[in-house]
Amino acid sequence: MTERPILLPDAKADVADAYLWYEEQVLGLGMDFLRCVEAALLAIQRAPLCYPIIHENYRRTLVRRFPLAIFFEFIPEQNRCVIYAVFHCSQDPEKWRGRLPT
Description:
Elements: E1 6-7, H1 9-25, H2 29-46, E2 53-55, E3 58-62, E4 68-75, E5 80-88, H3 93-97
Parallel strand pairs: 1-5
Antiparallel strand pairs: 2-3, 3-4, 4-5
Helix pairs in contact: 1-2
């Protein structure tokens, strides 16, 4: 098990924006979304290497019940994961790649 995943500020903003959008659609749906994101983060924390590498050494998992993906990097030397983006699956993949360190 790794340390708790670190959400970078842009990823936190992604989650907050999605929460507000879902909460505006149906009262309580935003909280359901947050629970599903939390479950995905715990799964990443338990077994980060089980998720596929999708670009260089960056991995992705999907958020259950919602069309969003979490993009992260596992850093073995630090035994932790860094979350770069929580993106809606219909967005241009170049957008989240732009957040990756160079």
